Amino acid sequence: MKKNTNKGSAPLLDVRNLQTYFKTDEGIVKAVDGISFTLGEGETLGIVGESGSGKSVTNLSIMRLIQSPPGKIVGGQILFEGKDILTLSEKELRHVRGNEISMIFQDPMTSLNPFLRISTQMIETILLHQKMTKKEALKKSIDMLKLVGIPAAEERVHNYPHQFSGGMRQRVMIGMALSCEAKVLIADEPTTALDVTIQAQILELINELAKKLNTAVILITHDLGVVAGMCDTVCVMYAGKIVEKAKTEDLYASPSHPYTFGLIQSVPRLDKAQDGKLYSIEGQPPNVIDLPECCPFHPRCNKKMDICTYKYPPVKKVGENHEVACWLYADEKEKSST
Amino acid sequence: MSDSDMNLKQPILEVKDLKQHFPIESGLLLKKQVGAVRAVDGISFDLLPGETLGIVGESGCGKSTTVRAISQLYTPTSGSVILNGLDLINASKKETLEARKDMQMIFQDPYASLDPRMTVRTIIAEPLEIYKRRGMLDTQMSRNDIENRVEELMERVGLNRAFKNRYPHEFSGGQRQRIGIARALALNPKIILADEPVSALDVSIQSQILNLLHELQQELGLTYIFIAHDLAVIEYISTRVAVMYLGKIMELSRAADPYKNPLHPYTKALLSAAPIPDPVIERKRQRIILTGDVPSPNVERHGCYFYDRCPSRMAKCKENIPQMKRVDEHHEVACFLYE
Question: What is the pTM of this model?
Fold first, then answer.
């Protein structure tokens, strides 16, 4: 699965120090707080984290789909092929959405309009972005449905969403998302609502299509198993920050952040028999309202030091393409500079 | 416990040929039954004291319906559920109530299963209050006793007793699931029916709850029926595993067997579809990808229930329903490959 990630040119998507905050009655929620990552052409990037860690907000920010108010992108840059998405006009944005960057959502039941036939919905998407006649667009829709493995696509294209099963609907969504040859596909928990056997089908499909069409994929998930099989690079998020970023093999072979380590250890594994206690991370996920400037993981961390309670750690390189934000890896100078 | 002990024990719960069909009706005034959803279509198993029977399967396979039919939340269509020698299906209302003291449920969604207008104290004390009002408690409890019992239960499941008067919305998902567990334990049940208790939780919280359930079992000698769709969770918590598909049990064995030695083609496919969190193993694996979706449970079947999706189907599978067959002491499978 190695891809031509770095051809010496700029990455396809370059997110720099992105900050998305939400204003609530109780205070400011820093849902995404200064994260940076890059995505190369044809690369598959995984974003893992628990609920509330900011994975979905990150990707909604990339599409500029954050509702404002209460949300606001307060800082950072999102460079897509060198252009900053955050400075685009509404019209230019519409060209990017769906055409260049496309998205599939978690719930295939609610992301299709139940009143409209699949054909209507697919044709609408295609006509919005490409110069075609309706007839050509219908043909294209049928081709896409065939590509994602819907049997009898010529007839099924005229069905309504309720006539499809969950897995089939997710296939339709993928077909729709890729119908304009988007360069980036953002998949937000695409298989969470599906059964394991269907999940395997859908992941296989995304993998295959990404290779065939050379699409870069951002896969958001909470399932470490899915990441292991699909992604080239992984970002682990906790409370709005990326705490660790590495090549998939490196992350699983040597998880450096105590949170990543705990996360990998606390999943029961099929291939290894376990008796007795499972490893577990104590405590509850943090309340993200008005988080203090410390490491948000320190109340649950088993390697907590004094400095963790009042200062956020710097991002350190612990290997090639392996970065971690933890005081365990900081040198003495950084620790004493406070 | 060793295997010989297991064999000597009398089952605490026997389920025999349990069927739960839901009628499909049509017509506005004169309702006529036009069909049935065969959610559970004839399953049998014994539950031994102290064990954990894991039920695994995809959505719509009837796992939740099974436990709900066992606890008499539905009225089963046919079959029998025998708890302590009493067949619950034909029991009187009073007998059912009495039996339910021994059998409590934990639900999947910690947000929907707690009444938002009740405090934690009221929620946990409710089972005690109900049985107290009917005079069916084993020992009479005063108001103070109940208060103490609630506090004791809260401590036991890892909740601070100072939170007694708080409401569910003030707790996180994992803590709410602890409240649900405390409520299930209030009457000192022998059997806990846990319907996907960790599916809605985050990974780090999931392991906390699994550990808690494990500890409680050791301490209180509980027997579990544990439902999950995550195979790794089932393997971890269970002593025996039943794999269900379309309302039928396909394979029933000790927990490690389906992983080391899966027999039924469906079990094999299910296992190979489950991702393993290790990129080195994961990328080398050969998947059995099943084609198609789970078929509708509304039609009566005369052949194997898995026929439509089975990669190794044979001619006779279409016309005959395979019966559960014992392949060794602890391993049963319903498939013609092993006739």
Answer: 0.85
